[in-house]
Protein backbone atom coordinates (compact mmCIF):
# COMPACT_ATOMS: atom_id res chain seq x y z
CA UNK A 1 0.00 0.00 0.00
CA UNK A 2 1.12 3.56 -0.61
CA UNK A 3 1.93 5.98 2.16
CA UNK A 4 -0.75 8.65 2.63
CA UNK A 5 1.33 11.65 1.46
CA UNK A 6 2.38 9.77 -1.66
CA UNK A 7 -1.24 8.89 -2.34
CA UNK A 8 -2.23 12.59 -2.07
CA UNK A 9 0.43 13.62 -4.52
CA UNK A 10 -0.72 11.01 -7.00
CA UNK A 11 -4.35 12.04 -6.63
CA UNK A 12 -3.37 15.60 -7.55
CA UNK A 13 -1.61 14.41 -10.71
CA UNK A 14 -4.54 12.21 -11.64
CA UNK A 15 -6.94 15.11 -11.31
CA UNK A 16 -4.83 17.15 -13.70
CA UNK A 17 -4.59 14.37 -16.18
CA UNK A 18 -7.06 13.76 -18.96
CA UNK A 19 -8.22 10.18 -18.97
CA UNK A 20 -7.86 8.19 -22.16
CA UNK A 21 -10.91 5.97 -22.12
CA UNK A 22 -13.07 4.55 -24.87
CA UNK A 23 -15.99 2.18 -24.79
CA UNK A 24 -15.22 -0.93 -26.84
CA UNK A 25 -18.34 -3.03 -26.13
CA UNK A 26 -21.42 -2.95 -23.93
CA UNK A 27 -20.10 -2.48 -20.40
CA UNK A 28 -16.41 -2.72 -21.45
CA UNK A 29 -14.01 0.22 -21.61
CA UNK A 30 -10.42 0.47 -22.75
CA UNK A 31 -8.11 2.65 -20.67
CA UNK A 32 -5.06 3.67 -22.69
CA UNK A 33 -2.04 3.45 -20.37
CA UNK A 34 0.90 5.29 -21.91
CA UNK A 35 4.21 3.34 -21.98
CA UNK A 36 6.90 6.06 -22.25
CA UNK A 37 9.76 5.40 -24.73
CA UNK A 38 8.33 2.01 -25.53
CA UNK A 39 7.62 0.87 -29.11
CA UNK A 40 4.37 -0.71 -27.86
CA UNK A 41 3.19 2.88 -27.10
CA UNK A 42 0.28 1.95 -24.82
CA UNK A 43 -0.99 -0.87 -22.70
CA UNK A 44 -4.69 -1.56 -23.18
CA UNK A 45 -6.21 -1.93 -19.76
CA UNK A 46 -9.85 -3.07 -19.91
CA UNK A 47 -12.51 -2.32 -17.34
CA UNK A 48 -15.67 -4.40 -17.25
CA UNK A 49 -18.30 -2.70 -15.12
CA UNK A 50 -20.21 -4.85 -12.68
CA UNK A 51 -23.87 -4.56 -11.79
CA UNK A 52 -24.85 -1.95 -9.21
CA UNK A 53 -23.16 -2.73 -5.88
CA UNK A 54 -21.26 -5.50 -7.70
CA UNK A 55 -17.54 -5.59 -8.38
CA UNK A 56 -15.78 -4.31 -11.48
CA UNK A 57 -13.07 -6.29 -13.22
CA UNK A 58 -9.85 -4.69 -14.46
CA UNK A 59 -7.78 -6.64 -16.99
CA UNK A 60 -4.03 -5.70 -16.99
CA UNK A 61 -2.57 -2.55 -15.48
CA UNK A 62 0.64 -0.93 -16.86
CA UNK A 63 4.21 -0.53 -15.56
CA UNK A 64 4.79 0.48 -11.96
CA UNK A 65 5.87 4.00 -12.90
CA UNK A 66 4.36 7.43 -12.56
CA UNK A 67 3.13 7.98 -16.14
CA UNK A 68 1.27 4.66 -16.16
CA UNK A 69 -0.09 5.17 -12.66
CA UNK A 70 -1.57 8.55 -13.57
CA UNK A 71 -3.13 7.22 -16.79
CA UNK A 72 -4.64 4.15 -15.16
CA UNK A 73 -6.08 5.93 -12.13
CA UNK A 74 -7.40 8.81 -14.23
CA UNK A 75 -9.18 6.23 -16.39
CA UNK A 76 -10.65 4.41 -13.40
CA UNK A 77 -11.85 7.68 -11.92
CA UNK A 78 -13.45 8.79 -15.18
CA UNK A 79 -15.30 5.48 -15.30
CA UNK A 80 -16.47 5.76 -11.72
CA UNK A 81 -14.49 2.81 -10.42
CA UNK A 82 -12.00 2.59 -7.59
CA UNK A 83 -9.72 0.00 -5.90
CA UNK A 84 -12.42 -0.98 -3.37
CA UNK A 85 -14.73 -2.10 -6.20
CA UNK A 86 -12.08 -3.91 -8.23
CA UNK A 87 -10.92 -7.42 -8.87
CA UNK A 88 -7.95 -7.67 -11.16
CA UNK A 89 -7.20 -10.18 -13.87
CA UNK A 90 -3.73 -10.47 -15.40
CA UNK A 91 -3.17 -12.05 -18.81
CA UNK A 92 0.52 -12.78 -18.06
CA UNK A 93 3.44 -11.85 -15.84
CA UNK A 94 5.13 -9.10 -17.93
CA UNK A 95 5.62 -5.83 -16.02
CA UNK A 96 3.68 -3.68 -18.48
CA UNK A 97 0.63 -5.82 -17.60
CA UNK A 98 1.21 -6.56 -13.89
CA UNK A 99 3.23 -3.59 -12.58
CA UNK A 100 0.38 -1.67 -10.97
CA UNK A 101 -1.77 -4.63 -9.87
CA UNK A 102 -1.08 -4.18 -6.15
CA UNK A 103 -1.79 -0.44 -6.25
CA UNK A 104 -4.98 -0.78 -8.26
CA UNK A 105 -6.31 -3.47 -5.91
CA UNK A 106 -8.19 -2.68 -2.70
CA UNK A 107 -7.65 -4.51 0.57
CA UNK A 108 -10.28 -7.13 -0.24
CA UNK A 109 -9.59 -7.41 -3.97
CA UNK A 110 -8.37 -10.55 -5.66
CA UNK A 111 -5.61 -10.44 -8.25
CA UNK A 112 -5.99 -13.42 -10.58
CA UNK A 113 -3.11 -14.77 -12.69
CA UNK A 114 -2.18 -18.22 -14.02
CA UNK A 115 -0.44 -20.41 -11.45
CA UNK A 116 2.51 -20.92 -13.81
CA UNK A 117 3.16 -17.19 -14.27
CA UNK A 118 2.59 -16.51 -10.58
CA UNK A 119 5.32 -19.06 -9.72
CA UNK A 120 7.74 -17.37 -12.16
CA UNK A 121 6.87 -13.92 -10.74
CA UNK A 122 7.76 -15.19 -7.28
CA UNK A 123 10.92 -16.87 -8.57
CA UNK A 124 11.89 -13.52 -10.13
CA UNK A 125 12.35 -12.05 -6.64
CA UNK A 126 15.09 -14.60 -5.82
CA UNK A 127 18.71 -13.86 -6.75
CA UNK A 128 19.09 -17.27 -8.45
CA UNK A 129 16.81 -16.73 -11.45
CA UNK A 130 18.81 -13.85 -13.00
CA UNK A 131 21.98 -15.93 -12.59
CA UNK A 132 20.45 -18.90 -14.40
CA UNK A 133 19.20 -16.56 -17.12
CA UNK A 134 22.68 -15.07 -17.54
CA UNK A 135 24.10 -18.58 -17.89
CA UNK A 136 21.65 -19.38 -20.67
CA UNK A 137 22.52 -16.21 -22.62
CA UNK A 138 26.26 -16.74 -22.05
CA UNK A 139 25.89 -20.19 -23.65
CA UNK A 140 24.12 -18.36 -26.51
CA UNK A 141 27.29 -16.34 -27.09
CA UNK A 142 26.03 -13.09 -25.54
CA UNK A 143 29.15 -11.02 -24.65
CA UNK A 144 29.77 -10.43 -20.98
CA UNK A 145 30.25 -6.65 -21.25
CA UNK A 146 26.97 -6.22 -23.14
CA UNK A 147 25.20 -8.46 -20.66
CA UNK A 148 26.12 -6.01 -17.89
CA UNK A 149 24.41 -3.21 -19.81
CA UNK A 150 21.02 -4.90 -20.07
CA UNK A 151 18.24 -4.29 -17.60
CA UNK A 152 16.97 -7.84 -18.00
CA UNK A 153 19.33 -9.29 -15.41
CA UNK A 154 18.67 -6.76 -12.73
CA UNK A 155 16.36 -8.39 -10.14
CA UNK A 156 15.09 -4.97 -9.10
CA UNK A 157 14.05 -4.05 -12.65
CA UNK A 158 12.56 -0.63 -12.15
CA UNK A 159 9.02 -0.91 -13.28
CA UNK A 160 7.97 -4.36 -12.19
CA UNK A 161 5.84 -5.34 -9.20
CA UNK A 162 7.69 -4.74 -5.96
CA UNK A 163 6.30 -7.93 -4.40
CA UNK A 164 3.58 -10.52 -4.57
CA UNK A 165 1.15 -10.56 -1.64
CA UNK A 166 -1.71 -12.80 -0.50
CA UNK A 167 -4.28 -11.05 -2.70
CA UNK A 168 -2.77 -12.93 -5.67
CA UNK A 169 -4.81 -15.99 -6.62
CA UNK A 170 -3.43 -18.63 -9.01
CA UNK A 171 -5.91 -19.73 -11.71
CA UNK A 172 -5.90 -22.47 -14.34
CA UNK A 173 -7.51 -23.18 -17.74
CA UNK A 174 -11.30 -23.42 -17.39
CA UNK A 175 -11.46 -20.95 -14.48
CA UNK A 176 -14.52 -18.69 -14.76
CA UNK A 177 -15.46 -15.24 -13.48
CA UNK A 178 -18.74 -13.40 -13.92
CA UNK A 179 -18.95 -9.61 -14.05
CA UNK A 180 -21.91 -7.62 -15.38
CA UNK A 181 -23.33 -9.55 -18.33
CA UNK A 182 -20.05 -11.32 -18.98
CA UNK A 183 -18.73 -14.68 -17.91
CA UNK A 184 -15.04 -14.97 -18.76
CA UNK A 185 -13.28 -18.30 -19.09
CA UNK A 186 -9.52 -18.68 -18.91
CA UNK A 187 -7.92 -20.22 -22.00
CA UNK A 188 -4.35 -21.34 -21.43
CA UNK A 189 -2.09 -20.22 -24.32
CA UNK A 190 1.55 -20.71 -23.28
CA UNK A 191 4.29 -19.32 -25.53
CA UNK A 192 4.64 -15.55 -25.03
CA UNK A 193 5.08 -16.50 -21.36
CA UNK A 194 4.86 -20.07 -19.98
CA UNK A 195 1.58 -19.29 -18.19
CA UNK A 196 0.13 -16.90 -20.77
CA UNK A 197 -3.68 -16.72 -20.87
CA UNK A 198 -6.58 -15.35 -22.89
CA UNK A 199 -10.08 -14.77 -21.53
CA UNK A 200 -13.16 -15.80 -23.50
CA UNK A 201 -16.64 -14.33 -23.15
CA UNK A 202 -18.46 -17.05 -25.09
CA UNK A 203 -21.95 -15.55 -25.11
CA UNK A 204 -20.75 -12.27 -26.62
CA UNK A 205 -17.95 -13.77 -28.76
CA UNK A 206 -15.36 -11.47 -27.18
CA UNK A 207 -11.78 -12.63 -26.59
CA UNK A 208 -9.29 -10.73 -24.43
CA UNK A 209 -6.14 -11.84 -26.25
CA UNK A 210 -3.49 -10.22 -24.01
CA UNK A 211 -0.18 -10.46 -25.91
CA UNK A 212 -0.93 -13.86 -27.46
CA UNK A 213 -2.46 -12.21 -30.52
CA UNK A 214 -1.50 -8.64 -31.37
CA UNK A 215 -2.54 -7.10 -34.65
CA UNK A 216 0.04 -4.67 -35.99
CA UNK A 217 3.10 -6.04 -34.22
CA UNK A 218 4.18 -9.63 -33.67
CA UNK A 219 4.31 -10.80 -30.04
CA UNK A 220 7.82 -11.43 -28.73
CA UNK A 221 8.53 -15.12 -28.34
CA UNK A 222 11.67 -15.71 -26.30
CA UNK A 223 13.46 -18.65 -24.78
CA UNK A 224 12.33 -19.39 -21.19
CA UNK A 225 14.09 -21.25 -18.39
CA UNK A 226 10.68 -22.78 -17.65
CA UNK A 227 10.00 -24.13 -21.16
CA UNK A 228 12.22 -26.09 -23.50
CA UNK A 229 10.17 -25.21 -26.56
CA UNK A 230 8.47 -21.82 -26.17
CA UNK A 231 8.03 -21.30 -29.92
CA UNK A 232 6.49 -24.78 -30.24
CA UNK A 233 4.19 -23.91 -27.34
CA UNK A 234 3.27 -20.61 -29.00
CA UNK A 235 2.44 -22.17 -32.37
CA UNK A 236 0.32 -24.86 -30.65
CA UNK A 237 -1.46 -22.08 -28.74
CA UNK A 238 -2.16 -20.22 -32.00
CA UNK A 239 -3.74 -23.40 -33.40
CA UNK A 240 -5.83 -23.70 -30.24
CA UNK A 241 -6.90 -20.05 -30.54
CA UNK A 242 -8.16 -20.77 -34.06
CA UNK A 243 -11.01 -22.86 -32.64
CA UNK A 244 -12.85 -19.93 -31.04
CA UNK A 245 -15.51 -18.07 -33.09
CA UNK A 246 -14.29 -14.64 -32.02
CA UNK A 247 -16.38 -11.63 -33.04
CA UNK A 248 -14.31 -9.03 -31.21
CA UNK A 249 -10.68 -9.48 -30.14
CA UNK A 250 -9.39 -7.10 -27.47
CA UNK A 251 -5.56 -7.17 -27.51
CA UNK A 252 -3.06 -6.04 -24.86
CA UNK A 253 -1.54 -3.39 -27.14
CA UNK A 254 -2.55 -1.32 -30.18
CA UNK A 255 -5.70 -1.84 -32.23
CA UNK A 256 -7.90 -4.83 -32.83
CA UNK A 257 -8.31 -6.55 -36.21
CA UNK A 258 -9.48 -9.70 -37.96
CA UNK A 259 -8.82 -12.46 -35.40
CA UNK A 260 -8.83 -15.50 -37.69
CA UNK A 261 -6.75 -13.82 -40.41
CA UNK A 262 -4.22 -12.60 -37.86
CA UNK A 263 -3.67 -16.11 -36.49
CA UNK A 264 -2.88 -17.40 -40.00
CA UNK A 265 -0.53 -14.45 -40.59
CA UNK A 266 1.35 -15.11 -37.32
CA UNK A 267 1.71 -18.82 -38.14
CA UNK A 268 3.08 -17.93 -41.58
CA UNK A 269 5.41 -15.31 -40.08
CA UNK A 270 7.07 -17.89 -37.83
CA UNK A 271 7.33 -20.44 -40.66
CA UNK A 272 9.25 -17.85 -42.69
CA UNK A 273 11.41 -16.96 -39.70
CA UNK A 274 12.26 -20.63 -39.11
CA UNK A 275 13.20 -21.13 -42.77
CA UNK A 276 15.33 -17.99 -42.61
CA UNK A 277 17.16 -19.26 -39.51
CA UNK A 278 17.83 -22.64 -41.12
CA UNK A 279 19.11 -20.98 -44.31
CA UNK A 280 21.45 -18.72 -42.34
CA UNK A 281 22.99 -21.75 -40.61
CA UNK A 282 23.41 -23.54 -43.94
CA UNK A 283 25.30 -20.51 -45.20
CA UNK A 284 27.31 -19.87 -42.01
CA UNK A 285 27.67 -23.15 -40.11
CA UNK A 286 28.86 -23.00 -36.52
CA UNK A 287 27.34 -19.66 -35.49
CA UNK A 288 26.25 -18.99 -31.92
CA UNK A 289 22.71 -17.77 -31.17
CA UNK A 290 24.14 -14.26 -30.76
CA UNK A 291 25.81 -14.40 -34.19
CA UNK A 292 22.71 -15.91 -35.80
CA UNK A 293 20.50 -13.15 -34.33
CA UNK A 294 22.94 -10.62 -35.79
CA UNK A 295 22.19 -11.92 -39.28
CA UNK A 296 18.40 -12.15 -38.90
CA UNK A 297 16.16 -9.32 -40.05
CA UNK A 298 14.67 -7.11 -37.30
CA UNK A 299 12.22 -4.26 -37.34
CA UNK A 300 14.39 -1.79 -35.51
CA UNK A 301 15.93 1.50 -36.56
CA UNK A 302 19.62 0.67 -36.17
CA UNK A 303 22.20 0.77 -38.96
CA UNK A 304 23.81 -2.53 -37.96
CA UNK A 305 23.77 -5.30 -35.33
CA UNK A 306 26.69 -3.59 -33.58
CA UNK A 307 24.53 -0.51 -33.09
CA UNK A 308 21.57 -2.36 -31.56
CA UNK A 309 21.12 -1.19 -27.94
CA UNK A 310 22.12 -4.11 -25.64
CA UNK A 311 18.55 -4.44 -24.32
CA UNK A 312 17.23 -4.87 -27.89
CA UNK A 313 20.00 -7.40 -28.58
CA UNK A 314 18.81 -9.28 -25.51
CA UNK A 315 15.25 -9.58 -26.95
CA UNK A 316 16.62 -10.50 -30.38
CA UNK A 317 18.91 -13.24 -29.03
CA UNK A 318 16.11 -14.60 -26.83
CA UNK A 319 13.82 -14.81 -29.85
CA UNK A 320 16.57 -16.38 -31.94
CA UNK A 321 17.21 -19.04 -29.24
CA UNK A 322 13.50 -19.94 -29.24
CA UNK A 323 13.69 -20.51 -33.02
CA UNK A 324 16.92 -22.54 -32.75
CA UNK A 325 15.44 -24.76 -30.03
CA UNK A 326 12.31 -25.32 -32.11
CA UNK A 327 14.37 -26.48 -35.10
CA UNK A 328 16.67 -28.63 -32.94
CA UNK A 329 13.81 -30.41 -31.18
CA UNK A 330 12.40 -31.33 -34.61
CA UNK A 331 15.73 -32.64 -35.93
CA UNK A 332 16.23 -29.83 -38.46
CA UNK A 333 19.43 -28.45 -36.88
CA UNK A 334 21.92 -29.56 -34.22
CA UNK A 335 24.30 -27.90 -31.78
CA UNK A 336 27.77 -28.60 -30.39
CA UNK A 337 29.31 -27.25 -27.20
CA UNK A 338 32.48 -25.28 -27.92
CA UNK A 339 34.07 -24.20 -24.63
CA UNK A 340 31.19 -22.38 -22.97
CA UNK A 341 29.01 -21.67 -25.99
CA UNK A 342 26.68 -23.66 -28.24
CA UNK A 343 27.46 -23.60 -31.96
CA UNK A 344 24.71 -24.43 -34.42
CA UNK A 345 24.69 -26.48 -37.65
CA UNK A 346 22.13 -27.70 -40.16
CA UNK A 347 21.48 -31.41 -40.30
CA UNK A 348 22.53 -32.68 -43.74
CA UNK A 349 20.25 -35.38 -45.09
CA UNK A 350 22.19 -38.63 -45.33
CA UNK A 351 20.31 -40.28 -48.20
CA UNK A 352 19.85 -37.73 -50.90
ZN1 LIG B 1 3.88 -9.39 -22.77
From TrEMBL:
SMART domains assigned to the protein according to its UniProt record, in alphabetical order: Lactamase_B
Span of domain Metallo-beta-lactamase: 42-253
Domain of life of the native organism: Bacteria
A Pfam cross-reference name: Lactamase_B
InterPro entries registered for this protein in UniProt: Metallo-B-lactamas, RibonucZ/Hydroxyglut_hydro, Sec-metab_biosynth-thioest, WH-like_DNA-bd_sf
Protein name, UniProt field: Metallo-beta-lactamase domain-containing protein
Organism, as annotated: Clostridium fessum
